[in-house]
Fold:
Amino acid sequence: MVSKLMYAEYLNRDELYSCLYDEFENCKSVKVFRTLQDYSGNYDEIYNEYAVLNLKEVEQMLADFYLDNVLLEGDKNCEHIYYVAEPVSTYLKFEALRVFVYNQIGHKVYATKTKGEQDFVVFDDTCAVVLDFTDQGALKGGFVTTNKVDVMEVLSEYDKYKVDAVDYLKAVPCETSTKNGLNKKIKELKYSLKLDK
Structure:
């Protein structure tokens, strides 16, 4: 996909994190496509607990994730599409729990069987970021463009993956007992925060 972008600038990991943070803070709409089946190359404390089956800790950490994000993201229109291959990876089974939280925040999350070339993010249909990962799923950097033609090219890719997309949790169901415990914690948080979501 990068070869089709005319005006993209490559940013290293630190520059990219700063760009992603700034764009997310100021946007109203986010579209994310993920094609990798494992992102454990990035340090993910919650996944590390899941990998050793410390599910009560995972439950609490995801409830904290909800609390950290619900007030910040409630007014954003966020969509995610994950490419899901068979057999489903352990990482994407874990990700179902995070998707459950995303849904509680108001994000729409889908799964597709259409494999993509690279992960990417589009902010407000005006800025596209194509992410560059190692084979182990660690972020190295990425290509950023605000050129209208480039952004439309990336949006066209997104639309291609959305054609056959289904609700993520129908494709990759959550582990039931952890989901139930997490749901209870989130309901308690919603009550204490006086949220009607």
In short: Helices lie at 13-26, 45-51, 55-73, 90-105, 148-162, 168-171, 176-193. The chain has a mean pLDDT of 93. The two ends are 37 Å apart (CA to CA). Residues 63 and 82 are 22 Å apart (CA to CA).
